[in-house]
Amino acid sequence: MKIEKIYEYEIDSKLRAKLQELLIECFTEEYPKDRIYFKQFPHFRFIAIDDNYQIVGQVGLDYRVMNLNGKPIRVLGIIDLCVSKIKRSQGIGSLMLSKINDFCEEKLVDFLLLFADNQKLYLNAGFKSVNNECKWLKIDNENQTTYGIGEEKFNELMIKEVGNIKWKNGKLDLLGYLY
User: What is the mean pLDDT of residues 119-138?
Assistant: First the structure.
């Protein structure tokens, strides 16, 4: 198994088709059938490739500034981590999370952030569930248009401290779209 980093703008049509197939398999009805992102392109991805050169997992990563209680923080957002159904429970998701941790070493990243319905994988990888009031840019996924600003608490919000700043409860302004 190997994990490769690829920038979004380097994805060719062949790789795009394989990623689209994997994303639709993993996220079924929720995922757009005509693209490889849900609301916005990630900056780059880690792609898991098995010994037969098949793509068996992927995760998008989005680097940006957010505002936590009036202070800027540097966040690497984890988007659409998924593993092919036939390859699940073999440690591939954990391997990709480990690769993300390694990537963050010696970089200007304060926190990893994600939204997860099923939190078990992330809790095992050192993430914690937080309960901040979030503010974000609302995007109509189908029409790809902005339609407002959202404010809400999410039970799915998880973070991992990877820098020298401690997470605090309070207000989190994502300064952009919701992953």
Answer: 96
Q: What is the CATH number of the domain that holds 62?
A: 3.40.630.30
Beta bridge partners of 129: 158
CA distances from 140 to 11, 143, 159 (A): 25, 6, 25
Does an H or E element contain 92, and which?
helix 92-104
Give the model confidence (pLDDT) of 58-90 as tens digits.
Answer: 999 999 999 999 999 999 999 999 999 999 999
Give tens-digit pLDDT for 105-121: 999 999 999 999 899 99
CA 71, CA 24: separation in Å to the nearest integer?
37
How many Cβ atoms sit within 10 Å of the Cβ of residue 101?
Answer: 14
Rounded to whole angstroms, the Cα distance separating 155 from 82 reads 20
* Ramachandran angles phi, psi of 89, nearest 5°: 65, 30
Three-state secondary structure call for residue 128: strand
- Number of folded domains in the chain? 1
Residue 7: which domain range?
2-177
Bridge partner residues of 6 (DSSP): 45
